[in-house]
Amino acid sequence: MQKIPMTAGGLTRLEDELRRLKSEDRPAVIRAIAEARSHGDLSENAEYHAARERQSFIEGRILELEDLISSAEVIDPASLSGDTVKFGAHVQLVDEETEKESLYQIVGAHEADIKQARISISSPLAKALIGKSVGDSVSVPAPGGDRTYEVLSVTYK
């Protein structure tokens, strides 16, 4: 089985979602199915079909989360150090064309969230950054053409 790199925070979020699905969402959908069944003819019962579809989604997500959690290899970025970009690094970049600065953390694919500046290790930007040091420039393919960034800092928190 292939291990999936993940931060401790990412694993905690997945475990919390799994706990919520099992303890809240699954029982709620079972109650909804029972309620819909009490309304009679199931062949034309939209509530019943919607609840069954929701149940199917929940059960699938539970299986997916259990698989992810069992395959997780937790890497603590705080235990890492150095000046090259690796998994878990917080990387400050400057776009060489616009001079706009950005700060990203490189995390596992299942915990990436661009709104919180966490990018997947498998994203084009992260792939270009791995192994780079402060002062290095990287070129990243983008829909509007290649973007070039300079690494300003690399930290592990």
Automatic annotation (TrEMBL):
Gene Ontology MF, one: translation elongation factor activity
Where is the chain membrane-spanning? none
Q: Transcription: present as a keyword of the record?
A: yes
**UniProt xrefs under InterPro entries:** GreA/GreB_C_sf (IPR036953), TF_GreA/GreB_CS (IPR018151), Tscrpt_elong_fac_GreA (IPR006359), Tscrpt_elong_fac_GreA/B (IPR028624), Tscrpt_elong_fac_GreA/B_C (IPR001437), Tscrpt_elong_fac_GreA/B_fam (IPR023459), Tscrpt_elong_fac_GreA/B_N (IPR022691), Tscrpt_elong_fac_GreA/B_N_sf (IPR036805)
Instruction: Print the keywords alphabetically.
Output: DNA-binding, Elongation factor, Protein biosynthesis, Transcription, Transcription regulation
The Transcription elongation factor GreA/GreB C-terminal domain sits at 82-156
One Pfam family assigned to this protein is GreA_GreB
Report the residue ranges that make up the Transcription elongation factor GreA/GreB N-terminal domain in this protein.
4-74
Q: Which domain of life is it from?
A: Bacteria
Is DNA repair there in the keyword field?
no
Annotated family? Belongs to the GreA/GreB family.
Q: What does this protein do?
A: Necessary for efficient RNA polymerase transcription elongation past template-encoded arresting sites. The arresting sites in DNA have the property of trapping a certain fraction of elongating RNA polymerases that pass through, resulting in locked ternary complexes. Cleavage of the nascent transcript by cleavage factors such as GreA or GreB allows the resumption of elongation from the new 3'terminus. GreA releases sequences of 2 to 3 nucleotides.
Read off the HAMAP family from this record. GreA_GreB (MF_00105)
Protein name, entry field:
Transcription elongation factor GreA
Q: Which gene encodes it?
A: greA
